[in-house]
Amino acid sequence: MIRQNGITIKDAMGLKGMKNCKIIAGNRGLYNTISKVNITADPDFADWVDAGEFLLTTAYSFKNEDIAIQKELIKNCAKKGLAGIGIKIYPYLDKLPEEVLDLADELDFPIIDIYHETPLSDIMTSIFKEIFNKQATLLQRIENVHEQLMNVVLSGGDVNDISRVVYENLQNPILINLEFNDNVLMGLEELPEDVRIEILNNYGRFYNGIDKVREKKFNETVEIITGKHVRRMVMPIIVKNNVYGHMFTWALKTPLGGFDLSILEAASTTIALEVLKQLSIRDVENRHRSEFIEDLLSLDVNRQKKAMEKVSVFKLEPDRQYKMIVVQLENQDNKMADELLQKVSLLNNDTEGLVEGLKLKAFIVNKTDSLYILLSLTKECNSEDKINNFCSQLEKVLLRRLNIKDFKIGVGRSYWGLSKVYKSYIDAVKAIISGELIDSGSVIHFEQLGIYKILCQDYLSEELERFYQVTISKLVEYDERKSTELVKTLEAYFLNNGNLKKLSEELYTHYNTTLYRIQRIQAITGMSLDNHKDRLNLEIALKIKKILRK
Questions:
Q1: To which protein family does this belong (predicted)?
Q2: Is the dihedral of CA 113, 118, 124, 129 positive or negative?
Q3: CA 453, CA 430: separation in Å to the nearest integer?
Q4: Are residues 234 and 173 in the same domain?
Q5: How far is CA 541 from CA 209, 446, 449, 480, in A?
Q6: 121 and 170 inside one domain
Q7: What is the pTM of this model?
Q8: Tens digit of each residue's pLDDT (9 = 90 or more) over 66-117
Q9: Cβ–Cβ under 8 Å, residues 54 and 69
Q10: Which domain does 83 fall in, by range?
Q11: What is the pLDDT of residues 140-169, one digit of tens each?
């Protein structure tokens, strides 16, 4: 919404120039803000007035217009966002029609009856003078707040110190939520318990709509707090064109206006600088971690040796059992580089919180579109149940920011010693690549791949291709040429343990049709499903087909 700075209709009514003037309709709009004043004698003014204007006119043109046109004029004034209208009614009319006044009341649009002896220019001058004085005072107060915030920054203060400056000037409770910090609360402890609970619930509901959360604009609404209408302001904290948090305030003690908005804008910029500093520090730390982990996972002996020389810097113990977990983001091609980096960085932060909460020991590195989590398996964390629990909790953490299809978690086997960590990494990557072959969900443990653990070895790729060619390649080619479903039938055959009746029911085919398909499969492949060796070869060939993505 557009916010105008100025004085309210109620303030204007108290000025000397408005003496003997009275409001005759639209009383609920008394707090509309007047940002400027205009005088007109032309009833067709709608195209050249702006929101926030207080329009001054006479009822001269009204006396020649019927009620419908007068009502349309008031409706247009309210629609354009004018603060109100002052009409010198006498001596042109005795009064405005009741229908016009009722409409103004309905629209909360103030109509002021201007005293007939008061020059309109005097009203304009007095209002402009008051607006100017208020703006000067406002600028002085804002400058004072800027100075306070600058002193906090120069003295090495943090977000808590910034929020204290904001609270002291707003005199309303505030809540600051940042991606990398715990929530900062100011002034909530002074509220009654029921109000405090409702405020926190109201804050939580804001984050129910992820689209709204990521909007890079100021949000102002009227909320229901313990049965009362309360104005709420939410200012996003934007760093590198991404939203990293929000600053909330509620008008529980004093009204919120232009001055309060200016404070929030200044504070959000100051907090953004603090966040940027933290991000820069994290980026440098992550770069060193990334270089270390790349050397550690390298097959180059010299690079591994270089990494082992740095283990003490990262507080890792060479002689301990380790397990590598890789989180791979998928379907992120449409994301901008900064947005993707922010997302991975936030996931890193969430994962660190999870590790700390579960009292585990882990070395975490974020890459461009992935996370590497090196778990140190101490005596307290060296059971399958604890590893599985960590992976389950990690999946939940990721689901707070991603869709279920947007990530895969590969879990490698455990190996003794940092020098063998690269093997666990290879396992984790293969688990991700092969996971869809066994349809195991988002979390894929290398140990659960079954025969795929053997088949997905890189050095076997040539042999797998040859095996595929001499087993079911002709069957695949036949399906493509004849538009048949023999490969699908063979897959269903193994899923139903060779039971042709169940196979027919699953494929919705007649038993004789199923029998004919089985005969064609055997004829084309030259292999018999009655022979246990041929059955094994055909079943393995189907798995190889998936690996080769044929």
A1: Belongs to the CdaR family.
A2: negative
A3: 8
A4: yes
A5: 48, 21, 16, 17
A6: no
A7: 0.61
A8: 888 889 889 988 988 899 999 999 999 989 999 999 999 999 999 999 999 9
A9: no
A10: 7-130
A11: 888 888 898 889 888 888 888 999 999 988
